[in-house]
Amino acid sequence: MSEQQMESTPFQVHLRGVVELLSRSIYSGPAVYLRELIQNAADAIAARRDEGYTGGLITITPVGPRSRELIVSDNGIGLDRGEVAELLATVGRSSKRDLLDMPRSDRLGQFGIGLLSCFMIADEIRVLTRSARGGDPVEWLGRADGTFSVRPLSGPEADAVPVGTQVVLAPRADDAPLASEESVLSLARDYAEYLPVQIDVIRADGRATRINETPVFVDPQRRTAEELLDYGRELLGTEPFEAIPLAVPVTGTTGVAYVLPYAPPPGARQASRVYLGGMLLSPALDELLPEWGFFVRCVVNTTGLHPTASREALIDDSALEETRDGLGAALRHWVLQLAATRPATLNRFLAVHHLGLRSVAVHDDELAALILPHLRFETSAGTATLRELAAAHPHLRYAATVDEFRQLAPLARPDAPIVNAGHVYDEPLLRRAQEFLEMVVERADASELMDALAEPPLAEREAVTRLERRADAALADLQCAATVRGFAPPEVPALYVTDQDVLGAQRRRDVAEGAGGLWGGLLSRLDSPAADAPRGKLCLNWNNRLVRTLAGQEQEGAGFTPAVRVLYVQALLAGQHALTRADRGALTEAMGRIVHLAVGLEPGETSA
Known about the structure:
Number of helices: 19
Strand order of the largest sheet: 5-4-3-6-2-1-7-8
């Protein structure tokens, strides 16, 4: 059979199935019916204004004691009989299209499914409409079973229908609360209080309550800082850190970014409140900002971004990408301006959000380039920003753990400080700094730092060598070697220095001691000391009077060994190293020997 002989048959639409799809997969819930009706009414008013009309009013009458029907009326463009038959009965057909049948960007609704949302709360939709272009008014009655009827009105019925459209719903009993006065007022304010169309809700006593408010975020440049902060207090429920005006002219997007006064959880993205032409699109849209913009909550109004069919999210297209870039540029400008003109405020901002900024800057090039120069790091010479460190020390060394920093910091010269990179994210950020700042960063090595310390004078080398040999013997059972250097301050007699291999072995021994049993035995065998096993070093300070006294003590002096062992434990404690069982035993034994010597007793001897 040829194509010309084939018979074309239109698709059949099962309306209940479509409504089920809308309620379960497209719309977030049945409450959106009111938003859809308000959007349709606002678009009808906008269409009439295109023809020179200057008014515009939407009236909503909730279900109440005097009526079981909800009525939404507008004085917009209205429809004639032909438009009613074509538009209201065709799923997906919308009047908000241009000459090329493309959706119009100046209309809130574009998909031709909005009216169907009413079937989520009612079994019938009654529409009374009169076109502003002339002709008799028409009644359209749609039913949830997929049937509809169209009836032209005449006589008194026609006289009662003004130009515009009136939608009448009789909600099902279970859904009637959504059409009550309380719900209608709440929903209308949430969705449409910033629409540039007057909206009245008729109360049960006949009074009209206008829900419209003037949005401060539509033109933030014309608002005072206090006006913007007032809205921010309402939005956040607390005092914002600061308000940043936003504008992306190419997509008709304006708004305000409120800097949070508290640190959100790391990795959390802040949800933005987004309005489309004054109508709420979403109270919590998380794809509007760049990922690194977690420290602000935005409220924006847009006319150039494209909503999804549900009108509760945005299509991820080039317009959204351009807007995201524009908003990111505004946040970046704010940070740079703080750095240039208000460094104290920048420091307060970084103090609140430093952890989140660090976590994102590890993998986000844009944020890293922006924020890294201003982040502060702890060093052996005090705290400083990376920009300050790069300027003063182009070749920078760091300690990868807090334990390392504690033992290396005293060895560092003031003109060559060590950076503490032991806190979360700090080491990868220091390495990333080489990409954005003129600096070289490398991990510090304890042996190199010790080699850079001052050697004792050559004339005293014999005494130094003898002291090292005797101290080695005193510490042999503690897996620690001794070395002698001169360093400041002279009041510090000794420092304990080790490397990551030794620290790792020490941690395993600590676990083995606490575990006991089979696992403790296995770990102990893994870390059984070998002759060539790496050992920590006790660096004795040749500039210290106590150390010089020990060096001058006679070879057979009984107080030498306990004194060195006490210095060893003191150095461990000063570097905040955990003491092992052997360390604690050595301290107890050494103190006991020192006490015996102080009272004139030989080791093991007791007083009478």
